[in-house]
Q: What sequence folds into this?
């Protein structure tokens, strides 16, 4: 369990997300509460429920990014889902329990990848031996006798020397152009039988069930040596790891450290009506309730308890409000935090300050073509002003507007970069205005282009 203090968590989030101090503080406290819970005696530990959060704010202000970065920070299984894609039991669509099956699957893949990384060196070595066996098959033992022993000894020495020479060439990449026949295993699945089934979960479950019943079929393929090494290393790594331990750890990690980000929760909030679409919205909430409250969900990896999974919900709440959610759901999200809308000054900081700032990304991308781009301070101010203006006039999509504007701004430079050779380009406010002013002036055009 991660031991970062709330201040350390906020400091790490500050590297990637500008502003939103209240939201960062809320998630940092929720995460620290998890660590504190692990220090409690066992009889009290299960009584401490996670501090689920509702983030309220328009699109593009950092709600999803805060949750995603939080999960990366703690190396926790993280799943983002849209509440609006779920339907109440009895209607066509995905059921809410599928989110638990999905996050468990993610956790298994995460733990498996970690275990594969630990045995990768040994797996690579074993794969190398198998490729050498394909290039130089081991000499078969002949009959017994003493007369041929010196000849056989010489032959063994020669074969060993040849194998070591091949190993050296293999490691130096001199054999990368050669091909070898490898055997791959695949399950023959009657996909055609279920390909027209509309229910996603039913199709997945049928594939899993049939995959367990049907035998594997071996198939020989001719591949280049680098591809053979990768495929065989993966196969050897899978043999070296204990999947029972992987599944046990993954289920525990899901239960104790999993984070589920439920976006668009405002879309399933009922607005005082008792019939029509609102009935379906309330039905989804009532199906979601036991998952958030704490229940046990059956997955292909066994039973998974949801009692201590951290749920972070988010929504713009332009039409509805958090109080429109059913009282039971409201009670399971004790922390409410409102995120601030972004303005020009925020955009300037977003463009320049974070470790993954857009300006840094575009400079690095164009450097791969030997094009050195320099953004002057006034050009960054102009980009931020245009982003704020377009958001004000059209749909406010927050920081996502910067991606659209930057792509349009760099479009010609990026297109010409491979042909122009080494060059240096200074982008100032005048260039930005010339490139974008006509689009910004034409409000109808800006709706389509920016």
A:
């Amino acid at each position: 369990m991660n031991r970062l203090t709330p201040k350390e968590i906020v400091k790490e989030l500050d590297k990637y997300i500008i502003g939103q101090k209240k939201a960062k503080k809320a998630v940092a406290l929720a995460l620290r509460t998890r660590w504190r819970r692990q220090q409690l005696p066992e009889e009290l530990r299960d009584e401490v429920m996670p501090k689920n959060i509702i983030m309220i704010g328009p699109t593009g202000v950092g709600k999803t990014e805060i949750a995603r970065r939080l999960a990366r920070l703690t190396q926790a299984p993280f799943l983002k889902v849209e509440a609006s894609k779920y339907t109440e039991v009895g209607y066509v669509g995905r059921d809410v329990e599928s989110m638990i099956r999905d996050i468990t699957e993610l956790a298994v893949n995460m733990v498996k990848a970690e275990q594969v990384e630990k045995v990768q060196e040994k797996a690579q070595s074993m794969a190398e031996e198998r490729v050498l066996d394909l290039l130089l098959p081991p000499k078969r033992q002949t009959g017994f006798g003493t007369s041929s022993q010196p000849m056989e000894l010489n032959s063994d020495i020669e074969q060993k020397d040849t194998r070591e020479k091949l190993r050296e060439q293999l490691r130096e990449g001199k054999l990368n152009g050669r091909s070898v026949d490898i055997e791959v295993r695949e399950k023959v699945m009657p996909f055609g039988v279920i390909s027209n089934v509309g229910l996603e979960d039913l199709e997945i479950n049928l594939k899993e069930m049939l995959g367990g019943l049907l035998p594997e079929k071996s198939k020989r393929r001719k591949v280049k040596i680098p591809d053979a090494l990768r495929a065989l290393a993966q196969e050897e790594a899978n043999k070296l790891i204990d999947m029972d331990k992987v599944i046990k750890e993954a289920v525990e990690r899901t239960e104790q450290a999993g984070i589920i980000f439920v976006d668009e929760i405002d879309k399933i909030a009922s607005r005082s009506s008792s019939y029509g679409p609102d009935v379906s919205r309330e039905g989804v909430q009532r199906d979601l309730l036991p998952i958030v409250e704490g229940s046990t969900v059956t997955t292909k990896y066994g039973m998974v308890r949801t009692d201590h999974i951290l749920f972070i919900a988010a929504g713009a709440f332009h039409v509805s409000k958090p109080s429109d959610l059913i009282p039971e759901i409201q009670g399971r999200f004790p922390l409410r935090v409102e995120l601030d809308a972004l303005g020009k000054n925020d955009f300037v900081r977003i463009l320049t300050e974070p470790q993954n700032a857009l300006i840094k990304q575009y400079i690095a991308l164009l450097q791969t073509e030997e094009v050195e781009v320099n953004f002057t301070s006034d050009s960054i101010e102009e980009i931020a002003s245009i982003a704020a203006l377009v958001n004000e006039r059209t749909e406010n999509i927050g920081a996502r507007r910067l991606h659209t504007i930057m792509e349009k701004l760099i479009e010609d430079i990026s297109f010409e970069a491979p042909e122009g050779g080494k060059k240096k380009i200074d982008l100032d406010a005048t260039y930005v205005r010339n490139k974008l002013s006509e689009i910004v002036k034409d409000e109808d055009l800006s709706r389509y282009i920016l």
Remarks:
- Confidence is low (pLDDT under 50) at residues 191-200.
- The two ends are 43 Å apart (CA to CA).
- The CA atoms of residues 128 and 171 lie 9 Å apart.
- The first strand starts at residue 53 and ends at 56.
